[in-house]
Design a protein that fits this description.
The structure holds 3 protein chains of 3 kinds.
Chain A (H helix, E strand, L loop, with lengths): L1 H33 L10 E6 L16 H12 L3 E6 L4 H14 L5 E5 L3 H6 L6 H5 L3 H5 L4 H4 L3 E2 L2 E2 L2 E6 L1 E6 H6 L4 H4 L3 H14 L6 E3 L4 H10 L16 H15 L8 H9 L5 E5 L3 H7 L4 E4 L14 E7 L4 H14 L2 H7 L19 H10 L11 H16 L5 H16 L1
Parallel strand pairs in A: 1-2, 1-3, 8-9
Antiparallel strand pairs in A: 3-11, 4-5, 6-11, 7-9, 7-10
Helix pairs in contact in A: 2-16, 11-12, 18-19
Chain B lengths: L7 H35 L23 H8 L2 H32 E2 L3 H10 L5 H14 L6 H5 L7 H12 L3 H9 L4 H12 L1 H17 L2 H6 L8 H4 L2 H4 L7 H32 L5
Helix pairs in contact in B: 1-14, 2-14, 3-7, 3-10, 10-14
Chain C lengths: L6 E2 L14 H35 L2 E2 L8 E2 L3 H8 L1 H32 L8 H13 L2 H12 L5 H8 L14 H27 L2 H9 L4 H12 L1 H26 L11 H10 L4 H25 L8
Antiparallel strand pairs in C: 2-3
Classes of the chains: A alpha/beta, B mainly alpha, C mainly alpha.
């Protein structure tokens, strides 16, 4: 018995020692990752860039590395002063969460991808550094390459909050084969919301009674385009939440009617895309950034179209996506961050990025993906900024509104009632 | 089993009853493991066979490529290692603090022993979620964000059930064993290591396995602490195959990863099942 | 029943002479405390201290990043009570408790009773592995399997419904059915563990009681009723208390993967609400306030069970 237990103890001790060793090693590795190390003179300044693209996109021509990672690699290869360490904590929420956690712990990441809708929070809550400060004299020349109508989207109170990077807008995707089978002409069908509704009824005949259209993910985003295209606003220039206007109500009613006609896919986000890809629905409203992935996934002919209009009213799509914000607090870090931004905004750098479905925010003449024309139509018409939710509880307000959009569209609540409740709840949150 | 004499008819009815019972249980089992079958089947499907209008039970063009592909898309090997390492260390840690304490509460009498045991048991009333926010803040302050110790150490104290179980188990050991040791002049420590430990191996085995399982499958806490891609565990990393809304959804590789994630716990449990039940039987919840 | 005699520390052993002071005595007397110390320290630091810290944080407005916190007194609490989304989460919380507790307490008991008469069969081990298998895997793995079953257009359930002539149901996006889907997945996932406890409890009934009863002429059913049942009531009570405590925690994994709190936040319970407040919106103060509320509610519920149910428990 003695022998056994002695061996046991030794074994246990070894395990604990190994464990401690493992913990130390892992934590050393972990620590190295989350701390941007300041190197000695002559060595590269290392900065951290939190982004959301550490996953493979669909349809990338050659490498399986996402263009964001390719961009970082290309930059590191050509830079003598700076080393960028790109990390992907997860989706936008998780990335912001990690960035905040690190800031609280004192390890401030130099660059963080920040959604457009969080622009206020970035400034007030997180202390993002205006690019005029970061770039100094070089700012004007470098930023001159950004399209005029895009520059205003990243500005708040006259200061440029970040570099437009993931720049997208919502568009309509459709299953060209099914539409052809139903004998519907896409150009006619997608012209106005009226013709769309009519066309969808015809298409439904081919789909065995399935719903025809799925509007994806954070529904408050396409809702903004729809409301604006009818002349309404979500947040007006005074920062007030004004979705209860007649124009907005009319726009929201259009979708609610589509649902009442059985044409609207009420599925949860995770189900909408597979339903479209699997051929159960025929129309999918999503970000132009999904284009690459969809091209790769769909077994049918994919078509794209800008949003339909409300009669003669002008289309007013919103932009979406995110910008790169500089959050570094030390001068050396900021300078290094600026080096990366310069490269990203150069023709060479931006070309790498354009392999995604995101839109070209620069003035460079770069090739676009097939199918993106629809998005550029909307871009040229003038995209509005994505709703900039004010206040410390911006994210919560956005989700609250998004929930009401879902409910109204699925006829879980009447349009009038829904909009009024939404206004009272959101106003309570943004104060 | 005491055998009573019964008329033949009753025995026949009993036979039919047993068949029914077996049948019913079998149906239940099939229903229970059916999702696993789907997971396994999908892990061998090519992308356009995953979601089809008609149900495809078995892949028409089965492929093995999802498995190696999964490792290419994401650091699945790293994730496996993280899950494994965290589970092993958590288990070792829980054992290290629970076994001695269980022994003390079971066999030693000391001032405040009842009160202290009550405070240990009382932790079972605290739902995990209640401590999440403060622990998160503390872990951040300690600089343990994104590290194994940040995940492991705050989860160690959630072991009241195991302490309880081990204590019960130790109490079932014959008193003579203890007395003999005392007579031989054994110190308390020696008693723990040389007498108790070898005799509660089944109990330790059970705690090891249950604790390993729960650490392997942990979701919320590692989700909050491990944000670096490379440092995630299988349980939380898996969703990335299909969660990126802007790129391809990789169901096949995700199911392959899910299968890989499910195998160790299943195998471990199958091997240890008898032990677990025996231990619960011996040291069950008898108050 | 066991008669356990506790061994006194520093107990006199025939070979150890009594001395005024000895390191050995000191070590022996402090040994129990040394043995329980690591456990108690960790419990103190990571369970009890957080309870107080939560209460402290609940009186502040803090987003975790800013170095300063703003004291707001009871504002977080009053805000919660006013907020419709919090009140709606209470609704879901209540539904989970009322549905899941009976299911997770009685269903495994029923299963255990079903398995009992055939417990000697060779299939026993296989049955148990199969029925326990959902418990053994991760929640994310489980949820992913069920996502396919619930898919409204291409999933298994709807395929079956259509084959039988019914129309589709939007399982995860209809507010009436979504919460039941979460409940089903959570049940499927957690039944195995309680089943195991019950089976063990049934087996643990001392053989002598059974023998004595059969000799007295009792049949299986009577034995079950008057001996086994009462003797497994401690296990039953344990299962009841622990299920009530953990049920809202357990469904977190299922909610997160299946519905993310939807549709229209109808599956969001108080735990999920806490997670969103704390880790999506960075409202640390509000999240802490919710933690405190959850804690006191749990303590209250547990006390209620001890007060009203425990007296029916037979301790061997």
């Amino acid at each position: 018995m003695n022998e056994i237990s002695r061996r046991k103890l030794v074994g246990a001790g070894a395990a604990v020692a190994a464990g401690l060793g493992g913990i130390t090693a892992a934590s050393a590795a972990g620590a190295n990752r989350s701390q941007p190390a300041v190197r000695a003179q002559g060595e590269k300044e290392e900065i951290t860039f939190y982004h959301i693209w550490g996953t493979p996109p669909g349809g990338t021509p050659s490498d399986s590395k996402h263009p964001a990672e390719q961009l970082i690699e290309a930059f590191n290869a050509q830079s003598t002063t700076t080393q960028v360490n790109g990390q992907t904590p997860g989706n936008y929420f998780e990335t912001l969460q990690k960035a905040q956690a690190d800031m609280a712990a004192g390890n401030v990441p130099a660059l963080v991808i920040t959604p457009w809708s969080n622009i206020h929070y970035a400034v007030e809550g997180l202390g993002v550094v205006p690019l005029e400060e970061v770039g100094g004299d070089e700012f004007e020349t470098v930023f001159g390459n950004v399209k005029e109508n895009v520059r205003s989207l990243v500005q708040l109170d006259g200061q440029t909050v970040g570099m437009p990077f993931a720049f997208s807008c919502p568009i309509f995707y459709y299953n060209a084969d099914i539409l052809a089978e139903a004998g519907v002409d896409p150009d006619t069908m997608f012209a106005t919301w009226e013709s769309l509704t009519e066309g969808m009824k015809t298409v439904q005949g081919v789909l065995d009674g399935n719903p025809v259209i799925g509007i994806s993910y954070n529904k408050d985003w396409p809702a903004q385009t729809i409301i604006q295209s009818n002349g309404g606003r979500v947040i007006n220039d005074d920062g007030e939440f004004v979705v209860d206007s007649p124009e907005s109500a009319e726009a929201m009613q259009t979708i609610a009617d589509i649902d009442a006609a059985g044409l609207y896919d009420r599925g949860v986000s995770a189900e909408l895309r597979p339903s479209f890809v699997g051929g159960s629905t025929a129309i999918f409203v999503g970000s132009v950034a999904s284009l690459g992935g969809l091209i790769r996934d769909v077994p049918f002919t994919l078509g794209t179209s800008p949003f339909p209009t409300f009669g003669d009213k002008p289309r007013k799509a919103s932009s979406g996506g995110s910008f790169i914000g500089v959050y570094a607090r030390e001068d050396a870090q900021r300078a290094a961050a600026w080096e990366f931004l310069k490269f990203a905004l150069s023709e060479e750098g931006y070309k790498i990025w354009m392999q995604t479905g995101y839109l070209n925010a620069t003035t460079y003449d770069l090739p676009i993906l097939e199918g993106q024309e629809a998005a550029y139509v909307q871009l040229d018409e003038g995209l509005t900024s994505e709703t900039q939710w004010p206040g410390a509880r911006a994210a919560e307000a956005q989700v609250t509104w998004g929930t009401y959009v879902e409910r109204i569209w699925a006829n879980d609540i009447g349009v009038e009632e829904g909009l009024q409740e939404a206004v009272s709840e959101v106003e309570a949150i943004i104060g | 089993m005491v055998s009573l004499s019964r008329p033949n008819g009753a025995r026949q009815r009993e036979g039919i009853g047993r068949v029914f019972l077996h049948g019913f249980v079998l149906v239940l089992c099939v229903l229970t493991i059916f999702p696993f079958f789907w997971m396994l089947s999908t892990s061998f499907k090519v992308p356009n066979e995953v979601f089809t209008k008609e149900i495809m039970w078995l892949p028409k063009t089965p492929t093995l490529s999802n498995y190696p592909d999964a490792f290419d898309y994401f650091p699945v090997a790293r994730w496996f290692w993280n899950s494994f390492g965290i589970a092993v260390l958590t288990t070792a840690g829980k054992l290290a603090i629970s076994v001695p304490a269980a022994f003390a509460f079971a066999r030693l009498s000391f001032k405040y022993d009842k009160v202290l045991f009550a405070t240990v048991l009382a932790t079972m009333i605290v739902p995990g979620v209640v401590t999440v926010v403060p622990n998160y803040v503390m872990v951040s302050r300690l600089g343990w964000m994104g590290t194994w110790q940040g995940v492991i150490i705050p989860s160690l104290p959630h072991t009241a059930f195991y302490v309880f179980l081990l204590r019960q188990y130790i109490r079932t050991l014959p008193q003579e064993l203890i007395d003999a040791a005392r007579v031989d002049g054994a110190s308390t420590l020696k008693m723990l290591t040389q007498i108790i430990l070898p005799n509660i191996r089944p109990g330790i085995a059970v705690v090891t396995i249950l604790s390993f399982l729960s650490a392997w499958n942990q979701y919320l806490w590692p989700l909050l602490i491990l944000s670096d891609f490379e440092s995630k565990t299988l349980a939380i990393g898996m969703q990335f195959f299909t969660s990126n809304t802007e790129s391809a959804q990789l169901w096949g590789p995700m199911m392959a990863t899910a299968t890989i994630a499910a195998l160790p716990p299943l195998i471990l449990y199958a091997l240890a099942q008898k032990q677990i039940i025996n231990t619960f039987v011996t040291s069950g919840i008898k108050g | 029943m066991d008669t356990v005699r506790k061994q006194t520390v520093g107990g006199m052993s025939a070979t150890q002479p009594r001395r005024g002071f000895s390191w050995y005595r000191l070590r022996e007397q402090s040994m129990p405390y040394l043995l329980v110390a690591p456990l108690l320290i960790l419990i103190g630091v990571f369970i009890y201290y957080p309870l107080f810290y939560s209460s402290y944080l609940s009186f502040f407005d803090w987003n975790f990043v800013r170095p300063d916190k703003d004291f707001v007194g009871w504002d977080n609490y009053t805000r919660l009570l006013d907020e419709p989304r919090f009140r709606r989460s209470l609704n879901a919380t209540w539904i989970y408790i009322v549905a899941l507790v009976p299911i997770q307490v009685f269903l495994p008991l029923g299963l255990a009773l079903l398995l009992w008469p055939i417990r000697k069969s060779r299939m026993q081990g296989a049955y148990r592995v199969m029925l326990f298998s959902p418990t053994v895997i991760a929640f994310s793995v489980a949820a992913v399997m069920w996502l396919w079953i619930f898919n409204p257009l291409q999933g298994l359930l709807n395929h079956i419904l259509i084959d039988f002539g019914y129309s589709r149901v939007n399982w995860l996006s209809d507010r009436d059915t979504a919460i039941w889907c979460v409940i089903i997945v959570a049940t499927w996932k957690t039944i195995g563990f309680n089943l195991l406890l019950y089976l063990a409890a049934l087996e643990a009934v001392p053989g002598d009681y059974i023998e004595a009863a059969s000799l007295d002429g009792a049949n299986h059913w009577q034995i079950m009723k008057s001996i086994r049942f009462p003797l497994i009531t401690p296990t039953f009570f344990f299962v009841l208390v622990t299920t009530v405590i953990s049920v809202n925690d357990d469904v977190f994994g299922a909610i997160n993967v299946l519905t993310d709190g939807g549709p229209f936040e109808s599956t969001t319970n108080i735990v999920y609400y806490l997670y969103q407040q704390g880790f999506r919106y960075f409202q640390i103060g509000a999240a802490s306030a919710v933690s405190v509320i959850v804690f006191f509610a749990t303590v209250l519920l547990t006390w209620v069970q001890f007060r009203f149910v425990e007296k029916h428990v037979h301790y061997g």
